[in-house]
Amino acid sequence: MEQLWLTLKFLLLGLFQGLTEPIPISSSGHLLIAQYFLDVHIEGSVSTFALLVNSASLIAVLIIYREDIKRLVVNGLKYVTVKNAETKRDFMFIVYLVVATIPAAIIGLLFQDAIDNNLSTIVTVGLTLIVTGFGLWWIRNMHGQRKDGSLTMTDAVIIGGAQAIALVPGISRSGATIVAAIARGINQETALRFSFLLFIPVSLGGAILSITDILNDDNLASMAIPYLMAFIGSLVASYFSLKWFMNIMAKGQLKYFAIYCFIVGPIVVLAWLVLN
């Protein structure tokens, strides 16, 4: 019975992470909230769990954006020999994704441990959710006109910087990058695509850095089924959550996520103050 409950809990955690990963409310922040207020703890290795659920979200992104990825790869390689407007656009899109990955990679390598040790707190999450809410509220009525072909190196650096800030729990990665892109006058479709294609190298990089932790996980064999259920739950939830969020973006309804952050953030802070 204990193993059954453990498996069910990991399935629910995977579903929860997958649901919150694509939408701009911070999946890492919400996992901290769940662990603190609901007394839900991750048995086994936290690194293994994080790798599995993030990899599942990555697969969902790859499935949904597979045509865009295929086009970028084909045209990016073709640009070496065939230089036209289409191949240049896609080649530069890849360059901008690489550039936008650099800030988070540097900050993560230098300060991730410090962030985890000092900022992975409930108070931080509550306050940063409010910050995320203000960002989303700021761009709620913006309708940029710039598309893939009009992206610039400045855009890439600013969006990459926003993604680096999102290493702090409670700052949504998708929210921060989309806010930065839309604030730069980029239209919602391109902002969303750039944000989630940018998730690919970040997720892959995190997976590579976690390989050693996974290999040293003494609980890997005994936790195989719970880990698997977390992976499946995250994959399914990430896929449908991202599809839903794409529809929300198309309708320009980001304000509802801002309102959610304005409600949950103060409640988390006040609850922490009462309990402590």
Automatic annotation (TrEMBL):
It is a multi-pass membrane protein. Belongs to the UppP family. It comes from the Bacteria. InterPro entries: UppP. This is Undecaprenyl-diphosphatase. The gene is uppP. The keyword Mitochondrion does not apply. GO terms for cellular component: plasma membrane. Catalyzes the dephosphorylation of undecaprenyl diphosphate (UPP). Confers resistance to bacitracin. Keywords: Antibiotic resistance, Cell membrane, Cell shape, Cell wall biogenesis/degradation, Hydrolase, Membrane, Peptidoglycan synthesis, Transmembrane, Transmembrane helix. It comes from Planococcus versutus. It is an enzyme of class 3 (hydrolase). Its EC number is 3.6.1.27. It is found in: Cell membrane. GO terms for molecular function: undecaprenyl-diphosphatase activity. One of its GO terms (biological process) is regulation of cell shape. The chain crosses the membrane at residues 44-65, 93-112, 118-139, 194-212, 224-242, 254-275. Bacitracin is thought to be involved in the inhibition of peptidoglycan synthesis by sequestering undecaprenyl diphosphate, thereby reducing the pool of lipid carrier available. Pfam families: BacA. The keyword Metal-binding does not apply. It catalyses: di-trans,octa-cis-undecaprenyl diphosphate + H2O = di-trans,octa-cis-undecaprenyl phosphate + phosphate + H(+).
